[in-house]
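Lecture notes, unit on protein representations.

Consider one protein chain, 393 amino acids long.
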Amino acid sequence: MTRHPAPGLKRRAPSDPRAIREEIRAEAQRLGFDAVGFAAAQAPPEQHDALAAFVHQGWHGDMDWLADDTETRANPARLWPRAGTLIALGMTYTPAHDPLAVLAQRDRAAIAVYAQGRDYHMVVKSRLKALGLWIWNRWGRELKVFVDTAPVMERPAAARAGLGWQGKHTNLVSRTHGSWLFLGEILTTLALPADEPERDHCGTCRACLDICPTGAFPAPGRLDARRCISYLTIEHAGPIPREFRAPIGNRIYGCDDCLAVCPWNKFAQTAREAAFAPRPGTAAPRLTDLAALDDAAFRRLFSGTAIKRSGRDRFVRNVAIALGNSADAQSLPAVRHLLDDTSPLVRGAAVWALMQLSPTAFREERERRRVAESDADVQAEWDAVPGTRKHAS
């Protein structure tokens, strides 16, 4: 969003920059933002260097958009050269419950905390627009708002503005809000003094690194997204690589492990924004119920949430993997049903799940289904499981 002053409309002339900064901070807090910080729009060169190294390693996986114009993505001033100040804003979504408790309920689905409420993009962006309109009306300066929808590296920007620091899990950590902050930004032509960046307070702690089920952190502060459960269950479009299926457990949308174990969370207050509270169908739903969702039912259940954006087939693929990890024979009917799904992505995951739950049922189904299957990826699932004819021959 860009705001321009209306022709002939008198605006309040900017006064002391520090006073303007504090007026904006107070208004942002009144609108519901829990963290507000200011930084120069121009980012340091090392921000681009870090992104370029990440892309060079191939750690971005299928997220090709991250590799597009890394110079602009790493530096907001290149995105909009007229910008003078970046305002970083955060809203806490700290859960009222232990988000890892559901991992022990293998017949239930673990959905990341951020996706359990209303889509945060809509909530945060509406507040950003309200704040932007207030700034425009008060000082008549152009501005743009962003919330995960443009090439702005949000976590480094928030760190530069003093909202926190990037922890060893690469997410933003705050001494006040722990690892639970939704982020958004405003770029403005106002020239305002920057806040002091927060120094790193992780110390020798490596809890977030050690808990990762798939070993997605090659080093502190480095993430190989190709191994990250959040990436695999949300961004990755194809079959989930076999080596990661068992470690995924019952995590069907995102993963909270590295966030939830951060010691700084003990200082975080439960989210005050009602829109971030879990909605029906998102707090530990039964896997078998989710496996029965067709596209229309999926859209109805997750309307207004971030989950809807992933699409039904990718979501049910994840559900099938979780069913295979449930060790629950009562899941077999749901898995058998998914073998007839119209989506090859879902069928392939169901083949793997069937073998995990019952090798006998797998052999029975394979006898009649392998020959009729037309999709190469699904055929490979029937052939790749130890104990089938291909492996026995």
